[in-house]
Write a structure and sequence with these properties.
26% of the residues lie in helices and 21% in strands. By secondary structure, it is α/β, with parallel strands linked by helices. The chain has a 25-stranded mixed β-sheet, with helices on both faces. A 5-stranded parallel β-sheet has the order 4-5-6-3-7, with helices on both faces. Helix 1 packs antiparallel against helix 2, helix 2 runs antiparallel to helix 3 and helix 14 packs across helix 18. It starts with a helix and ends with a strand. InterPro entries: Apaf_helical, At4g27190-like_LRR, LRR_dom_sf, LRR_R13L4/SHOC2-like, NB-ARC, P-loop_NTPase, Plant_NBS-LRR, WH-like_DNA-bd_sf.
Length: 1141
């Protein structure tokens, strides 16, 4: 056994040596892997630790065999038991070492792994993430990313607006907040190379895809990686998606996949339609910067500083304005002009205004490249042409879609009817808007071009198939050009031009648009041969002109469209009859002083006739409509002042127009109107505007005709139940009923259809008691699409809805929206009898309500009442989208929402309601003591920024104690003619967190106006140490506050570092701006570094800007212990720096 111990220990020493050698080999591999920035596998680290631990134990065994005496207690003989135990340990540890060494062999070559991609923190060299327009949208996207119920998020906006910048900033913030375990981002771009997209995502995920060509196998690999770990959340960002993409073809698990629990997808695209079939329920639009933000970004890019000359600053403002808030344009042009001389800036501005920007941007023309690429990507020539046609209009002009329809009918190929042309144009417009090549205009049916996009279009239209001449500024004479024959379209705006030239050679001209400013004096003359060399002309659009059309117009055999809008027509129109191919003839808003010729009956191809004239009393001769068998659209206007027999032939002829799909009329003659309506085939009308007016008046304000009815009481109520008119009522989008004295319940009068398509409803001076009587029945779909509801002078109105409506209608197994679910604006005025607007069940349907205006309702006590008298108000009622509230002249008003179980209790103005998005609040003539209450939910007034309070005689204070914290975004406050107000902001009792050394309140308020508050003693009261107030207040305007001795205490005044303007007028008791006892600042100099406008008028007791409370009777200087530094220009107040005299 002695020999066995020696042999076992010798073998153990040998294996320990081998293990040490193997450890050294593995350590060399570990060191090499670390030098290559690889991550060492945890099993390798564990093996190394095991080696160290086992080596230590083995050494203890070997030391025991040599150091122990191995003898019996009294005899010098071996201790057999100890030696046997050591021998067994040596054998056991030898086996462990052999096994561990073999495990180490397996680790050779698998020591290190590629490290996860290290992404350099995003740095935006032209940072505009601090702008308010970007902060708000960024915060919303971050909230969506945190919402576990949202899987796909879309960000869209026009080229160059900053979508990629926004995404990079969001990704950076996501990493800081550790919202996701991993973030993978890929640029998709126009060509949409799926293999490239997969490689980008795989690389950021540390995934190596061996397959190079098989897209399906590659997608499977990526799918496995994205769905591998349910516990690890992943954000996938796909930037610049041009068209719809199948996520599964990339390898992204689809929505509904059980393995996609921790996965979110974030897209960006310039095309809104990309999202239609890709699944994102949450979409965010990134718009252009505001004017101020655009200027700041441009100044940053162009390195404009305070030391820059005033001339360059002025040029910078003008150039930034020309860029229209588009970040990419602002940065590109700003960088180009940085460090350039003044003449380069002036030249750049002129070239911008002259649409030659590509010369300015030089090497950095990313903006134009992006927009031109979007143009080239348009799939149809018609879409390209329509976009170019928009550039014919003046810069920033709102463009009527109907005008584009008129142009398209004359220029598009294979346009058989106006209605089909309109559908095609609107489809193209939607496409162009979704690509952000077009923007929404001022009106719903208008569009506009971004200035930079318009410049690109004009650049494109300066060469190739389409060549445009466009002049709109300061044109007094026809431009002289040597290339007239090349032009395909001309658009000119003249100011004061009196004569058109002769001898023009415009053989390729297809569209001529000429507008003359009405301010021009003298008649506009046209040479007789003006049209002689324009034989290809298809569209002639004259606006605002007094023109004798020359006889050469008869040579325009290809003319399809003739628009004489806002013109003065005092010449023979018979020549129009020779234009056999004419399809559109309009006299919109024109003054006509001649008779319409009988030759108009020869216009057999005419499809649209617009007679909505401004002045003129001449009717059409008999037989005119009979020759217009193809007429699709007839706008009669309201010029009819004819005898009965003349009207009869009009009725007869109009009834023969079987292709008519659009009809408009405005008349004060109910009998004629009803006869005409009865004669028409109303079911065929796709668009209609029927207006019964009280008296004859021109109605040329609404160029766009939608489905609308304007009815007066003298129309027989039974006539409204006729099948034809009922058809119009059922399909109308806009309904205006005035002085209807025979109807009590609107819904039950027209029970069958329920106004399912109605978007606008205006009721004036009617006898309605309810709009809906839910105690009887509710027609299916009643008011489900209603967006605007205006009620005025309904003196019998008891309630909007009698009874309660269900949140949703059930039709079969499909849930249908409830009544008022799409209501956006609600305005009620002069409804004497109404005590509450609607019950809780109705209020809960109004999730989309944004504007609420109530005025002159003397009996109104609350907006929302309980469904039953026994209802106990326990839940908070939320109006999630309500942003404007106006409550005016409501003498009986108690609270927005009543509590039937608290009879006699004092209610706050906004009791148990929440308005998380309210920005504007206007209150006038309310009998309320409190407006803001500390019991309100913290989110209730979170976004409130603009408040006006007037004539509330019982109001004691605007906000007090903790309720002031609700006003964290208040920016403007105006309080006027409130007799009882003693303290505006009573801060006593405001709780301060022990961990906060200092808190800021009302720090976003920048404008404060107080007027006619005779009892006002304090603007702020009891401002404790550690509370900062009014840090950003820039303007103070105070008038007729006769009890006010001083405006602010010294502790509050020291926060007024942003104050620029101070106006005090007729405050009888005012002794100073700053006063009161405050030992901490009593002897300190107070500075107002930005104050540049100070006005004190009729303040007879005024002593000093800062009053000394401990110097009673001691004369004080006007600006005692105050330092006022002015940074204004030469015309500002004199710089003052005064100390105690």
């Amino acid at each position: 056994m002695y020999m066995h111990l020696n042999i076992d220990c010798q073998r153990l020493r040998g294996e320990v040596k081998n293990l040490e050698n193997k450890r050294k080999d593995v350590q060399l591999l570990v060191d090499a892997a670390k030098r290559n920035a690889q991550v060492i596998g945890s099993e390798v680290d564990a093996w190394l630790q095991k080696v160290d631990d086992l080596k230590k134990v083995a050494c203890e065994v070997l030391n025991g065999s040599t150091n122990s005496q191995m003898r019996c207690l009294y005899l010098n003989c071996p201790n057999l038991k100890s030696r046997y135990s050591l021998s067994r340990k040596a054998v056991k540890k030898t086996a462990d070492i052999v096994e561990l060494k073999a495990e180490g062999e397996l680790r050779v070559g698998l020591v290190g792994y590629p490290a996860p991609p290290v992404q350099i923190p995003y740095q935006n060299l032209h940072d505009f993430e601090g702008f308010e327009t970007r902060i708000s949208i960024k915060n919303k996207i971050m909230e969506a990313l945190k919402d576990k119920d949202i899987g796909i998020i879309g960000i869209y906006g026009m080229a160059g607006v900053g979508k990629t910048t926004m995404v990079n900033e969001i990704v950076a913030q996501v990493k800081v907040e550790k919202l996701f375990g991993e973030v993978a981002m890929a640029l998709v771009s126009q060509d949409q190379d799926l293999i490239n997209v997969q490689d980008q995502l795989a690389e950021m995920l540390g995934l190596k895809i061996e397959e190079k060509t098989n897209k399906i196998v590659r997608a499977g690999r990526l799918h496995e990686r994205l769905a591998a770990d349910d516990d690890k959340s992943i954000l996938v960002v796909l930037d610049d998606v041009w068209k719809e993409i199948d996520l599964t073809s990339i390898g992204i698990p689809p929505e509904g996949d059980d393995k996609r629990k921790g996965l979110k997808i974030l897209f960006t695209s310039r095309n809104y339609n990309v999202w239609r079939n890709m699944g994102p329920k949450t979409k965010f639009e990134v718009n252009v910067l505001t004017e101020g933000e655009g200027l700041e970004l441009f100044k940053h890019a162009a390195d404009i500083s305070d030391d820059t000359t005033d001339v360059l600053k002025g040029l910078a403002e003008q150039i930034a304005n020309e860029c229209g808030g588009l970040p990419l344009a602002l940065v590109a042009i700003g960088e180009t002009l940085g460090n350039r001389e003044e003449h380069a800036w002036r030249n750049a501005l002129e070239e911008l205004r002259s649409s030659r920007v590509t010369n300015v941007t030089n090497e950095n023309n990313l903006v134009y490249s992006a927009i031109e690429l979007s143009y080239k990507y348009l799939q149809s020539d018609e879409a390209k042409l329509l976009l170019l046609l928009c550039s014919l209009f003046a810069e920033d002009q709102s463009i009527s879609i109907e005008r584009l329809v008129i142009y398209a009918k004359g220029l598009f190929k294979n346009t058989t009817s106006l209605s089909k042309t309109r559908d095609k144009v609107k489809t193209i417009v939607d496409k162009l808007k979704s690509c952000y090549l077009l923007l929404s205009g001022k009106e719903e049916e208008d569009v506009k071009l971004h200035d930079v996009v318009r410049d690109v279009c004009l650049s494109i239209a300066s060469k190739g198939e389409h060549v445009f001449m466009v002049r709109h500024a300061g044109v007094t004479e026809w431009p002289e050009q040597d290339t007239d024959e090349l032009y395909t379209a001309m658009s000119l705006t003249f100011n004061g031009m009196h004569q058109f030239p002769s001898g023009l050679k415009c053989g390729n001209l297809k569209l001529l648009r000429v507008r003359c400013q009405r301010s021009s004096s003298g008649p506009n003359m046209t040479s007789t041969d003006f049209f002689e060399d324009m034989k290809e002309l298809r569209i002639l659009d004259f606006i605002g002109m007094s023109i004798p059309i020359p006889s050469s117009i008869q040579l325009l055999t290809e003319l399809r469209t003739l628009c004489l809008d806002s013109c003065e027509i005092n010449f023979d129109l018979s020549m129009i009859g020779s234009l056999k191919k004419l399809e559109i003839l309009t006299f919109f808003d024109s003054s006509i002083y001649v008779r319409f010729p009988s030759e108009m009956a020869q216009l057999g191809n005419l499809r649209s006739l617009d007679l909505r004239i401004q002045k003129g009393s001449h009717t059409l001769p008999p037989g005119v409509f009979s020759g217009m068998k193809k007429l699709e659209e007839l706008y009669l206007g309201d010029y009819f002042q004819t005898r009965d027999e003349e009207r009869m032939h009009i009725i007869e002829e109009v009834s023969s127009l079987t292709s008519l799909n659009t009809f408009q009329i405005s008349t004060d003659d109910s009998q004629f109107l009803m006869q005409l309506i009865q004669a028409l085939c109303l079911e065929k009308l796709e668009r209609f505007q029927v207006i019964r007016t009280k008296e004859k008046a021109p109605n040329t304000k609404d160029y766009h005709v939608t489905r609308s009815l304007h009815l007066l009481d003298d129309i027989d109520a039974s006539m409204l139940l006729e099948p034809g008119l009922k058809s119009l009522m059922r399909r109308t989008d806009h309904l205006f009923i005035e002085e209807a004295k025979v109807w009590k319940n609107l819904s039950n009068e027209f029970h069958e259809h329920g106004f399912i398509n109605l978007k606008t409803l205006k009721l004036l001076s009617c006898d309605f008691e309810y709009l809906i009587d839910a105690t009887i029945s509710i027609p299916t779909g009643m008011f489900v699409k209603l967006e605007l509801l205006e009620l005025e002078g309904l003196h019998n109105l008891i309630e909007i809805c009698n009874g309660h409506v269900p949140m949703k209608h059930l039709l079969g197994h499909i849930s249908k929206p409830s009544s008022f679910s799409n209501l956006v604006t609600l305005k009620i005025d002069d409804c004497d009898a109404i005590r509450n607007l609607f019950r809780e069940s109705v209020a809960k349907c109004m999730g989309n309500l944004q504007i609420l205006c109530i005025s002159r309702c003397e009996m109104l006590k609350e907006v929302v009442s309980p469904d039953t008298e026994q209802n106990e108000v326990t839940d908070m009622l939320e109006f999630p989208k309500l942003r404007e509230i106006m409550l005016r002249s409501l003498k009986s008003f108690k609270s927005f929402r009543s509590e039937s179980n608290k009879v006699g209790a004092m209610l706050t103005l906004f009791n148990q309601v929440m308005f998380p998005n309210m920005k504007v609040l206007e209150i006038e003539e309310l009998d309320t003591v409190k407006i803001v209450d500390e019991e309100m939910h913290i989110r209730s007034l979170y976004k409130l920024s603009d408040v006006t309070v007037r004539y509330c005689d019982n109001l004691l204070t605007f906000a007090q104690s903790d309720s002031i914290k609700l006003l964290q975004n208040l920016k403007r406050l105006q309080v006027r003619s409130c007799k009882a107000v003693e303290v505006l902001f009573d801060i006593e009792g405001l709780k301060i967190d022990k961990d906060e050394a200092e808190i800021s309140i009302l720090d976003r308020l920048y404008s404060l106006r107080l007027d006619s508050l005779p009892s006002l003693l304090h603007i702020t009261r009891m401002v404790a140490k550690g509370i900062c107030v009014f840090q950003n207040l820039t303007s103070i305007d105070i008038s007729e506050c006769d009890s006010l001795r001083y405006l602010f205490s010294p502790s509050v005044a020291k926060s007024l570092v942003a104050l620029q303007s101070l106006w005090v007028n007729k405050c009888e008791a005012l002794e100073g701006i700053i006063g009161g006892d405050d030992e901490t600042t009593e002897s300190k100099m107070l500075e107002f570094p930005r104050l540049n406008h100070l006005t004190l008028v009729f303040v007879r007791n005024f002593k000093s800007f800062k009053c000394k409370s401990n110097c009673v009777g001691v004369p004080q200087t006007l600006f005692n212990q105050v330092c006022i530094l002015s940074y204004m220009h030469e015309q500002s107040a004199i710089l003052i720096f005064l100390k105690d005299a």
